[in-house]
Amino acid sequence: MDKFEIRRLNLQAVLRTHCNGKAAALADKIGGAPSYVSRMLYPEGKRGKKRIGEDMRDRIEDALALPRGYMDDVARAAAEVGASAEAEESTRPTPSPALSHLVDVSAEGVTIERFDAEELKIVELYRRADKDGRMIIFGAATVAPKGEMLPIPPAGKTTLGPINASEKRVLDLYRRADKEGKAVILGAAMVAPKEDQSDAAGNTD
């Protein structure tokens, strides 16, 4: 992600958290037109797209009393990617093709049959993360550079038991990532905020 995409994603989050999702409300706060706010939210390449430069970035932060640098926060942007992608993926109940040969789907859930140590680590870190941490990991996995699908690892059983759909999606994206992408995802998983261990110990979800 470049700085303009980071700001667009953070603007998307700000619009939801500070303006009830209404472009007109944000436009009123920054003294602009609702149509201009909408165009700042356009994805790169869409006709009429307006990038968020330094002056507009500062204007938004000042108008909403946000700390300086808020709109350039990479982790927050990654979390927004994760939140958006997870919401979109949650409407797709069918198992992803990339994992269809790696899992058994049953009424009890999805159990990994073939894995490697890094894949196991990703799932474990994702499971330990709190809600914000999971969004950061999912966001990093979504934007990570993609490569060729790796060969299926040797057969084996995990100690994790059934994994849920969200964990499966992260593992799917991890397997699709290239070497650099895998490092990005693992790095995000390592620094993602964790659940309180006393609470996590009793969590059976």
Word description of this protein:
The protein has 205 residues and is mostly helical. It folds into 2 domains: 3-72, Orthogonal Bundle (434 Repressor (Amino-terminal Domain)), CATH 1.10.260; 94-201, no CATH class. The protein contains 10 helices and 2 strands, in the order αααααββααααα. Strands 1-2 form a two-stranded antiparallel sheet. Strand 1 and strand 2 (109-112) form a beta hairpin. Helix 5 (74-89) packs across helix 7. The two termini are 33 Å apart.
How would you write the strand order of the largest sheet? 1-2
The largest pleated sheet is described as: 2 strands, antiparallel
Radius of gyration: 19 Å
> What is the mean predicted local confidence, pLDDT?
74
The amount of beta strand, in percent, is under 5%
Poorly predicted sequence stretches spanning 5 or more consecutive residues: 90-113, 152-158, 197-205
Class from secondary-structure proportions: mainly alpha
Order of helical and strand elements: HHHHHEEHHHHH
Tell me the number of structural domains. Answer: 2
Number of strands: 2
What spatial form do the alpha-carbon principal axes imply? elongated
Q: In DSSP terms, counting alpha (H) and pi (I) runs of 4 or more, how many helices?
A: 10
The proportion of residues forming helix, as a percent range, comes to 40-55%
- Give the end-to-end Cα distance, rounded to a whole number of Å: 33 Å
